[in-house]
Amino acid sequence: MMKKRSIICLFLCVSLIAAFALTGCGNSTTPTEATEAATEAVTEAPAADGIDYMVLVNKTHKLPDDWEDKLETVHMTNSVGDDVEVEKKAYDAYLKLKADLEKEDIHVDLDSARRSVEAQQRIMDDFTEKYGADYAAKTVAKPGYSEHHTGLALDLYLIIDGKDVVENEDMIQYTDIWATIHSKLADHGFILRYLEDKEYITGYGYEPWHIRYIDDTAKAKEITDKGITFEEYLGAYTGGEVSIDLGSSEIYTEDDLKDAVIQIECKFAFWGDVDLKNIRYAGDEAVTDKNLAWMNELAPDAKYTQVAEFLMDFHTPKDVGEMTFNADSDYTDYQWWLARTDDGGWEIVTFGY
Q1: Which domain holds residue 319?
Q2: Are residue 158 and residue 180 in the same domain, yes or no?
Q3: Does 214 share its domain with 118?
Q4: Residue in 328, 348, 326 with CA at minimum distance from that of residue 337
Q5: What's the domain count of the chain?
Q6: Shortest CA distance to 146 belongs to which of 56, 82, 86?
Q7: Can you give the pTM of this predicted structure?
Q8: Do 193 and 327 fall into the same domain?
Q9: Which of 56-70, 131-145, 312-326 has the lowest mean pLDDT?
Q10: In degrees rounded to 5, what are phi and psi of residue 159?
């Protein structure tokens, strides 16, 4: 089931959006699409047989080529009648978690778990045929780079007073229930995968329902107690904390600006070992008719009605690979331009100098 995500990054984080391709800014310093290409999946110690429960699959780390051949799964039918496929040990652990939660009168079920690379490719092909390659790239996760391919990522939904609560915008309201659920994850070998304010690392916004099985309660407790992401634990992210300055605006609310920052952070998650220092709102002075007209020139089909500019400081690693940044260098006041319609979410239209 593909649910509406009212607070998460739009799937435009998956690839450079079409609008950027239209900018023609020869002096813009941006990473190339090669930065988003496959890198080897990060693991702590490759398993000799079977799957490695510590495998990292994210926006820059691809599912191992032989993963699906080794994977053992089971199928279950949830309370709304959907078939859900889960890795066998992860499902056994989920049942124990579920029983533990029921002692607290908290009831959950599985919304989704494994989605094959082949199925993801079919979705991509279908969207490409119906809506074009640009739209498909913005809305469908790149096949091979979704954690759901592993069978170890589980999306929960709540059952409240006997009623299924499956939409994200409804579930997010039950903060106390999610806090209790999260407090019991590590006891059963699970971690919360996408933490609040860690979008620049994970590439996804906060998802209290998305849990990940790692088959090790000690490691799960360490990750949970430290409040770190899976990437940080595995050493796949080595940067420091990020400062966010929303400033003050008479045009946009704090939530408006936070939603825009999440889009930038999700895009930044593609940039590998680049050390992000801060993101800050450039101010209401950038919200002009001229800049709005510029956004609509870059994306003439979008019909944007609002525009915002943000600035970013970051430091590049000594090895930038195929990225177009200079190595071991500081970049300051790096521009991000976002726009939206009255009833739509923020989209990154262009970025660079």
Answers
A1: 27-33+240-352
A2: yes
A3: yes
A4: 348
A5: 2
A6: 56
A7: 0.78
A8: no
A9: 131-145
A10: -120, 110
| C-alpha–C-alpha distance, residues 151 and 71, integer Å | 8
Q: Is residue 9 part of a domain?
A: no
Rounded-to-integer distance, Cα 178 and Cα 26, Å: 47
Domain boundary among 219, 234, 249: 234
Q: What residue type is assigned to position 208 of the chain? A: P
Question: 256 and 227: one domain?
Answer: no
The structure tokens 């299924």 sit at: 164
* Structure confidence at residue 130 (pLDDT): 83
In sequence order, the β-bridge partners of residue 315 are 275, 330
Domain boundary among 234, 251, 282: 234
User: Are the C-beta atoms of residues 242 and 278 closer than 8 Å to each other?
Assistant: yes
**Between 205 and 280, the higher pLDDT residue:** 280
Predicted confidence (pLDDT) at residue 21 exceeds the cutoff of 80: no
| Helix segments in the chain, DSSP class H | 18-21, 67-70, 88-102, 117-131, 133-139, 168-171, 175-185, 199-202, 217-226, 230-234, 254-268, 289-298
175: CATH: 3.30.1380.10
Residue with tokens 């001229």: 290
Q: What is the average pLDDT value for the chain, to the nearest integer?
A: 86
d(CA 312, CA 262) in angstroms, rounded, equals 13
Residue environment code for 342-351, b if the CB has 16+ CB neighbours within 10 A, otherwise e: eeebbbbbbb
List of residues 6+ apart from 289 with CB closer than 8 A: none
How many alpha carbons lie under 13 Å from residue 175 in its C-beta half-sphere?
A: 2
Which pLDDT score is estimated for 185?
98
Rounded Cα–Cα distance for residues 87 and 78 (Å): 16
In the DSSP assignment, the letter for residue 236 is: S
Residue 270: what pLDDT?
83
Q: Which of left, alpha, beta for 26 (phi over 0: left; psi -120 to 50: alpha)? A: alpha
Contacts with 129 (C-beta within 8 Å, 6 or more apart), sequence order: none
